[in-house]
Amino acid sequence: MDQKASGRADYAIRDEIEGDAGRLIELFGQLGYPVSEEELSLRLTALRGREDYAIRVAERDGKLIGMIAFHSEKALLQPTCEVRVMALVVAEQERGSGIGGRLLAEAEDWARDRNASYMRLNSGIREERSKAHIFYRSRDYDSGSIGFSKKLRTDFERPSVKSK
Question: Where in the numbering of this chain does the N-acetyltransferase domain appear (predicted)?
């Protein structure tokens, strides 16, 4: 476990573990992805223990104050894998304290251990993400591409069809 000072008190960076979902839902909400504890627990359980995924949390005094989730992807355009950050969030009151940088460094170390060619992440082009963009640029991340997405309805979202 890595101990770092945030300027106010010590915090620890550790792997996400079973039981963290209830303490992570506030952070997911701050990131703009509200989710129930039950649903988040299911998602975390599906990823936990996989060698190609990792989730790290920052914890102080039993409170989760940051989280990063990332995974490796087979690359077609590069000779080695790439690592994609799926989510990075630091509690609003802790932003600017160095926790986000430490979490991102954890993901970069994990990527280096796998000989990854690149770190990749997406960050929305919205005003509320402008500080995040400054944060990433200050850590040598480029915004050299434009991401596109399309929302698809899943079976989970489709209304049930009553049989005749």
Answer: 11-164
Mean pLDDT of all residues belonging to the chain: 86
The answer to whether position 106 is within a domain reads yes
Residue 143 lies in a domain: no
Rounded to an integer, what distance in angstroms lies between the CA atom of residue 41 and that of residue 38? Answer: 5
Write the CATH number for 115: 3.40.630.30
Predicted structure pTM score: 0.81
Residue 163 in domain? no
Question: Structure tokens of 44?
Answer: 């975390």
Please check whether residue 79 lies inside any domain of the structure.
Answer: yes
